[in-house]
Amino acid sequence: MSPTEQLAYLTKGCVDVVRAADLRAKLDRASEYGRKLVVKVGFDPTAPDLHLGHTVLIRKMKHFQDLGHTVVFVVGDFTALIGDPTGRSKTRPPLTREQIAENAETYKAQVFKLLDRDETVIEFNSRWLGALTSEDWVRLAARYNVAQMLERRDFRQRYEKGQPIAIHEFLYPLAQAYDSVHLKADVELGGTDQLFNLNVGRDVMPSFELKPQIVMTVPLLVGLDGVEKMAKSSANHVGITEPPVEMFGKLMSISDDLMWTYHELLTDDSTETIAGLKARAADGSLHPKEVKIGLAKRIVADFHSAADADTAAVEFERVHGRGERPSEMPEFTLSLGDEWKPLNRIMVDVALASSSSDATRKIAGGAVSIDGAKVADRHWKPSPGEYVLQVGRRHARLVVR
């Protein structure tokens, strides 16, 4: 690609590029002198699993990698001890070192579903942040002031409401900035909620006689509900380690409008290609369902295989197109001799609802059926036998003894 084409490819789907002209200049120099850009992204291992929302950023890392640049995946094992205050109305409880180490290992395994294992540099920021002396931390803190910190919206809101802000929370943006200093980053990527932290890196780097990094942000992916950002706690997520059939089914549940956002953020298609698909769907020459099937297959193939994606598509059509039962479904055994649980609690136990209240809402909304018949009573109690419990598009076999 020419530098102009590279710029379009790299900025596709981005919300902020600070600054695009500087990025173009870096790409020009990289092309002329054969110099690779150092592209840094940090992930604090605060949870064990990644979902598609995380992969928007990972895919942008892949785009730089596709063009031959050096991508540095920074595992924030030190910064996770501080706890990122972004979006928090109160101080985040710190994780233990054991939790951080365990989560970091799963992150390393999962990111290589998109990134090239051999070309990705993995760093743990405890290597340099843990080596800073007390004097080093004081000198680093002296490069930024409290007024600048309070420009951050969540800090400012907490301050104005009289809510506590722990001193160590101010260290988080500075620690992230020092990551960029240590790595001599040309570019740092992050979600839109990270814009303040990323810009602290830009502000601090010149004081270390380094050129300020380019800051690029990607949007926070909206979840399956089309309303809230994708999050495991909201049960609107697609985990990248989920089985292919489950992943495919969840993706087929998104709205036609949201489908185009997923196309932009979760595939490598150019804006021109996506615009072409959109035009064909609008003029009726391509049915939106076919577009969605193609999107779901591509995403499943990214995290599993093309064969798995094809199998998932066939299974989806068999179950949801022809009304047949899934060829495979999780099986759970229940004993009538035990203390009986109402249906809404059973649904939580078999992972068909995130909570008892979520299950109750699904039952009331007519989304729950047993052996094909809708159930409206959360106190449903079966006789011994086998039942197929269906919640929306998902199924489970109950063996009652």
Give a summary of the structure in a few sentences.
With 401 residues, the chain is of the alpha/beta class. It is built from 18 helices and 11 strands.
The class by helix and strand makeup works out as alpha/beta
CATH fold-level label of the largest domain = Rossmann fold
Largest sheet: 6 strands, mixed
| Helical stretch tally | 18
Walk me through what this model shows.
With 401 residues, the chain is of the alpha/beta class. It has 3 domains: 3-218, HUPs (Rossmann fold); 242-321, Tyrosyl-Transfer RNA Synthetase (Orthogonal Bundle); 331-400, Roll (Structural Genomics Hypothetical 15.5 Kd Protein In mrcA-pckA Intergenic Region, Chain A), CATH 3.10.290. It is 47% helix and 13% strand. The chain is built from 18 helices and 11 strands. The protein has helices at residues 3-11, 20-33, 52-66, 79-82, 97-111, 126-129, 134-141, 146-149, 153-160, 167-183, 195-204, 244-252, 256-266, 271-283, 288-303, 306-321, 343-349, 356-364, and strands at 16-18, 38-43, 70-75, 120-124, 187-191, 214-218, 331-334, 368-370, 373-374, 385-391, 394-400. The strands form 2 sheets. A 6-stranded mixed beta sheet has the order 1-6-5-2-3-4, sandwiched between helices. Strands 7-11-10-8-9 form a 5-stranded mixed beta sheet. Strand 10 (385-391) and strand 11 form a beta hairpin. Helix 17 crosses helix 18. The radius of gyration is 24 Å and the shape is globular. The relative contact order is 0.10. The model has no long low-confidence stretch (mean pLDDT 88).
